[in-house]
Design a protein that fits this description.
This is Sulfurtransferase. Keywords: Transferase. Pfam families: Rhodanese (PF00581). GO terms for molecular function: transferase activity. By secondary structure, the chain is an alpha/beta fold. The chain has two domains: 143 residues, Oxidized Rhodanese, domain 1, CATH 3.40.250; 108 residues, Oxidized Rhodanese, domain 1 (3-Layer(aba) Sandwich). The protein is built from eleven helices and twelve strands. Strands 1-6-5-2-4 form a five-stranded parallel β-sheet. Strands 8-12-11-9-10 form a five-stranded parallel β-sheet. The protein has a two-stranded antiparallel sheet with strand order 3-7. α5 packs across α11. It is globular.
Length: 269
């Protein structure tokens, strides 16, 4: 598993396993060949989804559906804000499925693109009947990953996430049971960061830096909007770390009013 996680980051393209929401909508409009996976809750999928999207709700359904994701087509994944899609994308890629997440998900990305409504349907799309081969070891680890969500469903760490408010409390009381990890660029970390945080920038060498992190503390990962921290959180958890990602990251104009700085929380410089 360690080699797969290292490879995931080392072979990362400039797209960072993401696609801009406008580019995604343009591809759908052009009827390009692709597989679209909607990992929102079934009730939200039923209210409206992008034409052709398959519903694989965030959780065990993703592990169960891996072998039925069609081969030979690009795979695009969306959730609500892009954060849980980041986790899903990593688990799919280590299973041999090249997948990217749609920037900022349905609520903050797709739903803000002009004309997206014409591509929304209430009709479901089914998984392929074809079966791809998934390495048994990877399948077992990904299944374990998603089954583990039930253990945190009634805690502050639901969906392997943590709220900005919870992190503020942890930072203010300097709780030594937690490590706060920023995966933002080094220049942005130097400019402003959550007090007490350490920095391992997101990129090709991210996983090479995991060795400095303790396995006996809970690691809180944050980025800009929560999306790349979702990828890092998944990688860390699959390597045996107790990691969660902070909701909405430091915050940007694109995901306002969510995120640490969008909420006016203090930063260290």
């Amino acid at each position: 598993m360690e080699e797969l996680i290292l490879e995931y980051f080392r072979q990362m393209h400039d797209n960072r396993y993401k696609i801009d929401q406008v580019d995604f909508i343009e591809k759908v409009k052009a009827s390009e060949e692709m597989t679209i996976i909607d990992i929102r809750r079934p009730e939200d999928y039923e209210k409206g989804n992008i034409i052709g999207a398959i519903n694989m709700p965030f959780g065990p359904a993703i592990a169960e559906g891996l072998k039925r994701i069609p081969e030979g087509k690009p795979v695009f994944v969306y959730c609500y804000s892009g954060q849980t899609a980041g986790q899903a994308v990593l688990t799919m890629n280590i299973a041999g499925i090249y997948a990217r997440s749609v920037n900022l998900g349905w609520d903050l990305g797709i739903g803000r693109v002009e004309g997206y409504e014409e591509l929304v349907t209430t009709e479901p799309t089914c998984l392929s009947e074809s079966v791809r081969t998934i390495d048994p070891m990877v399948q077992a680890e990904v299944t374990k990953y998603y089954e583990g969500l039930s253990e945190v469903s009634d805690t502050p760490f639901r969906n392997y996430k943590i709220s900005e408010e919870e992190v503020l409390s942890i930072a203010e009381r300097k709780d030594e049971d937690f490590i706060i990890l920023s995966v933002r660029r080094a220049v942005d970390f130097r400019s402003e960061h959550i007090e007490g945080a350490v920095n391992i920038p997101f990129g090709n060498e991210t996983a090479d830096g995991f060795g400095i992190l303790p396995k006996d503390k809970k690691i809180i990962v944050y980025c800009y909007t929560g999306q790349t921290s979702g990828q890092v959180t998944a990688g860390l958890r699959l390597l045996g770390y107790d990691a969660v990602s902070m909701n909405a990251g430091m915050g940007t104009k694109g995901n306002y009013p969510f995120g640490w700085m969008n909420k006016g929380y203090p930063v260290a410089r």
